[in-house]
Amino acid sequence: MEQLHFITNLLNLKDLNITLIDCLDQGTHKELLAKLDYQPPQCPACAGKMAKYDFQKASKIPYLEVAGFKTLIKLKKRRFKCKDCGKMRVAETDLVKKNHQIPVILNQKIAQKLIEKLSMTAIAEQLSVSTSTVIRKLKEFQFKTDLNFLPALMSWDEFSFKKGKMSFVAQDFESGNLLAILDGRTQATIRNHFLCYHRKIRERVQIITMDMFSPYYDIAKKLFPNARIVLDRFHIVQHLSRAMNRLRIQIMNQFERKSLEYRTVKRYWQLILQDSRKLSDKRFYRPTFRMHLTNREIVQKLLSYSEELKHHYELYQLLLFHFQEKQPDEFFGLIQEALPSALPLFQTVFRTFIKDRDKIVNALELPYSNAKLEATNNLIKVIKRNAFGFRNFDNFRTRIFIALNIKKEKTNLVLSRC
Ligand SMILES: [Zn+2]
């Protein structure tokens, strides 16, 4: 008896009415035979006296692994019969909730694993339960939107849920908590979501950071009258360097394929895009040129091939300089001045910049960016990749909320939700 009690302790079987009878080795898994029995309770129907009757056919309860083996508890439950009205009743245990087949402890384990970045099928496999059990657990997590709160600083971005289907995501800039994940990114979707907040709450928002995606500007202005839009610095620079790179390719294609010009402009593309202040002065042997050159000297050679390349390279580098030194007046002064003589590729970018001038100036003057939300977005991608077959957007969203908003809190809190 002592020994068995010790085992029930080890298995965390807290119900003292459960007695272990045997443990069978089934090769692939262990089977614990157990009995649930206690003194007859009062009849729930007539409050009369009940008596012990027989045992129910053993119910199979999947349990946590024991010593590395999948484990199944075969629990025989006592049946009671009322002496007065004849009603039957099955013994109850807190091991498994009434009308449930999964032990409470296993449910807690599922909740824990949902926080980790595991696919739902992997969780089901590890705990020997069905995927639908895991999904049912997932659905128990409810994330209510607090309509009385919006942060002063907010970040907006998007990610793709399925091929060609974009979703909208908003994050509290300071706490990093997710505020919204929306199934779609249309103006209507975003408006419907944020209009749930009272105007007074929306007026508290001071800053919204976002990357370059103009359809968001209008809706942001309308919904958040006091908010200033801050474009992400990284994306602004990316815009510029993309134009520079396209221009490099255009010029490269004017040369013969086998010429030195073509081959070197192709090969050293990164040096052209790189901040010229950071070009290395170390000299190495360069097989393409058949001589020893520093990176800076290579750039000089490339620029000597084309006046247009040289002109735009210098313009690009100067813009980068003003941008990194946070000099908006010089940055836009240069753009205005260069616009008429620039190649169409650059003109397009310049016009976009002029149109979004205030948002770019904000980016240069304020210390906010979309970097934190980009990190969140990477996590979302990991979840998406690991959770093959999220056909249902709601389940996907819940999983993201669990992974991102709960992770920061204590696991205890999650367990208390069960
Ligand atoms: Zn009765």
Automatic annotation (TrEMBL):
Source domain of life: Bacteria
Domain Transposase IS204/IS1001/IS1096/IS1165 DDE: from-to ranges: 157-400
Pfam family, one: Zn_ribbon_ISL3
Domain Transposase IS204/IS1001/IS1096/IS1165 helix-turn-helix as annotated: residue spans: 92-140
Domain Transposase IS204/IS1001/IS1096/IS1165 zinc-finger positions: 39-85
InterPro entries linked: Transpos_ISL3 (IPR047951), Transposase_DDE (IPR002560), Transposase_HTH (IPR032877), Transposase_Znf (IPR029261)
NCBIfam families (UniProt xref): transpos_ISL3
PANTHER family per record: TRANSPOSASE FOR INSERTION SEQUENCE ELEMENT IS1557
Protein name: ISL3 family transposase
Organism: Streptococcus panodentis
